[in-house]
Write a structure and sequence with these properties.
A hairpin with a 4-residue loop joins strand 1 and strand 2. Helices cover about 45% and strands about 15% of the residues. It starts with 9 loop residues before the first strand and ends with a strand. The protein has a four-stranded parallel β-sheet, with helices on both faces. The chain has 16 helices and 15 strands. The protein has three domains: about 270 residues, 3-Layer(aba) Sandwich (Rossmann fold), CATH 3.40.50.620; about 150 residues, Isoleucyl-tRNA Synthetase, Domain 1 (Orthogonal Bundle), CATH 1.10.730; about 50 residues, no CATH class. With about 500 residues, it is an alpha/beta fold. The longest helix has 23 residues. The structure holds one RNA strand of 74 nucleotides.
Length: about 500
RNA sequence: GGUCGCGUGGCCGAGUGGCUAGGCACAGCUCUGCAAAAGCUGCUACUGCGGUUCGAAUCCGCACGCGACCUCCA
């Protein structure tokens, strides 16, 4: 039958700020690197949004036929807290607070991160490297950068020489910074006397005596710089130049800018061909962030136990909510928006259930169904436009419901779908909804045992008896009280069915 | 202060020059003992002021409002 056009895929390259056709370096293979979490505290919903964006990207690339190596790191060393704690490792600080070994903290929050990823149905990356497991490679990269003259040692630390690099290369290309402007905007450099320029950044940092996480190096005991691990691990597993690097918008500068500089300084190669940046999740217009204190954990989300939440929402509701906006737009969290998504997702999944029961008549795939299918692929291939794709699926929902003979509506069932149409729609909805968007049917909240279904069949039969004798008071009482228990009864043409509300 | 971006109907949120996005909410109708679900119909917006154009939410300028980054952050 009519074949769909699955390619080409276009994405917005934030390096060029243009939408470009995606052409892998070595098709059909694709190298994808995404900056993972720093495992020193719980991930919040804003983090989840970013990882979800790249989860869908990963899924989409595979769906359209690429073989993807997806690398997402775990940052378990190295980032500084703030001025007060200058020189002290973030993870070490937390360890002291909680009286735990640093690696215990790392393990704890890594486990927590994985739990969250499972909850939101994110696929595991191909490789999930940790910074602490790549210290040798990081030291080697520092050595290469020094050897090439773009870094210098000072008092046991090693700094990247930004002005020297910028003299020859385009430092600031990704984030649109200009070195003069950066210099004029520099804050006070207190405690940074070792740096030749305030723009220089540490690629190896000397550890103070009280520092808990430190390793020997040619420059003494210390730990790797903030941006080094991503350069090292992406190079190691994807090559000196690879296809796509993703991360949150807030990592663009300085993190990703420094990654580019490091790779060029160390190996002379531009590391990334396509940069992708996901936008922020906001709450009342402000970025959700640890420092803002406006984040909530997935656990709080599910239970609704947080001052921002009117009630709890399921992980799939949230996932659907996020995918109903474009990844490059900011997305504002609100209870009203969550409830709208909840209803929408229910409607979508109900249509999928209906679709499973449809038989369909004779005939070929209709042009309308073929067009719907193509529209979904086109939307996804246009910079991964999930909201448009979902809008098309909702058009499909109307088609499905209109073709449903079990519906009691007069006009329903009039729209004829062929058996081929039904099969095609099943394939499409399964692919888009579950495989690509990564949604899944919610597990039944209440234990859905055979016993419960038996009880329900009994209740339905008793209610049918009451209705048969026009005892509507009793039949309504049964239905209303079931509603109070979270069970909905629907009278359809094919009989009465029940479901969890 | 610098850089970048945003401002769409009751709410969320797509859309980059002309042709109804979609979801939620709301109203009417169909169906129905009543509901629920579903279908149909209605609600037709683009911060303000100029400009370009036959034509602008969409391009340009200015103003106002908001945000992100410039410091760890998805």
């Amino acid at each position: 039958m009519s074949s769909i056009k699955k390619l080409p895929f276009h994405l917005t390259n934030t390096l060029t700020r243009k939408k470009e056709e995606f052409v892998p370096l070595n098709p059909p293979h694709v190298g994808l690197y995404v900056c993972g979490p720093t495992v020193y505290s719980d991930v919040h919903l804003g983090n989840v949004r970013s990882f979800t964006t790249f989860d869908v990207l990963y899924r989409w690339l595979m769906h359209i036929g690429y073989k993807v190596r997806y690398v997402r790191n775990i940052t378990d060393v190295g980032h500084l807290v703030d001025d007060i704690d200058a020189g002290e490792d973030k993870i070490a600080k937390r360890a002291r607070l909680e009286q735990l070994e640093p690696m215990e903290i790392v393990q704890k929050y890594t486990n927590g991160f994985h739990d969250v990823m499972r909850l939101f149905n994110l696929r595991n990356p191909s490789i999930e490297p940790t910074a602490t497991a790549h210290l040798i490679e990081q030291i080697q990269m520092v050595e290469r950068i020094i050897a090439n003259g773009y870094a210098y040692e000072a008092n046991g630390s090693v700094y990247f020489d930004v002005p020297k690099f910028a003299a020859k290369y385009n430092y600031g290309e990704l984030s649109g910074r200009k070195i003069d402007e950066l210099l004029s905007n520099t804050r006070d450099t207190e405690g940074q006397e070792e740096k030749r320029s305030p723009l220089d950044f540490a690629i190896w940092k000397k550890a103070e005596a009280m520092h808990l996480m430190k390793w020997p190096s040619p420059w003494g005991e210390g730990f790797p710089g903030w941006h080094l691990e991503c350069s090292v691990m992406s190079t190691k597993y994807l090559g000196q130049t690879f296809d796509i690097h993703g991360g949150g918008m807030d990592l663009k500068f300085p993190h990703h800018e420094c990654e580019i500089a490091q790779s060029i300084a160390a190996d002379g190669t531009t590391p990334v061909r396509y940069w992708m940046h996901g936008n922020m999740l906001t709450v009342n217009g402000r970025k959700m962030a640890k420092s803002e204190g406006n984040g909530f954990t997935p656990e709080e989300l599910l239970t609704g136990n947080h001052k921002l939440l009117e009630r709890g929402y399921s992980a799939m509701t949230v996932r659907f909510f996020m995918l109903q906006s474009h990844y490059a737009s900011t997305l504002d969290f609100s209870n009203a928006a969550m409830q709208a998504s909840e209803k929408g997702l229910e409607k979508m999944l109900a249509a999928v259930a209906t679709l499973d029961k449809l038989k369909g008549g004779s005939g070929d795939v209709s042009p309308e169904v073929a067009a719907l299918e193509q529209a979904c692929y086109d939307a996804m291939n246009d910079d991964m436009n999930t909201p448009i794709m979902i809008a098309h699926l909702f058009d499909g929902v109307r088609t499905i419901n209109s073709a449903n003979p079990a519906s009691s509506a007069g006009q329903a069932g009039k729209l004829a779908l062929s058996g081929a149409d039904v099969e095609r729609l099943k394939t499409l909805f399964n692919a888009m909804l579950f495989e690509v968007l990564g949604l899944r049917k919610e597990e039944e909240v209440v234990g859905n045992s055979e016993a419960l279904d038996g009880v329900m069949q009994l209740m339905i039969a008793m209610r049918a008896e009451a209705k048969a004798t026009k005892n509507f008071a009793l039949s309504d009482k049964i239905r209303d009280q079931l509603v109070a228990l979270g069970i909905t009864i629907k009278d359809t043409k094919d009989g009465t069915v029940w479901e969890h509300a």
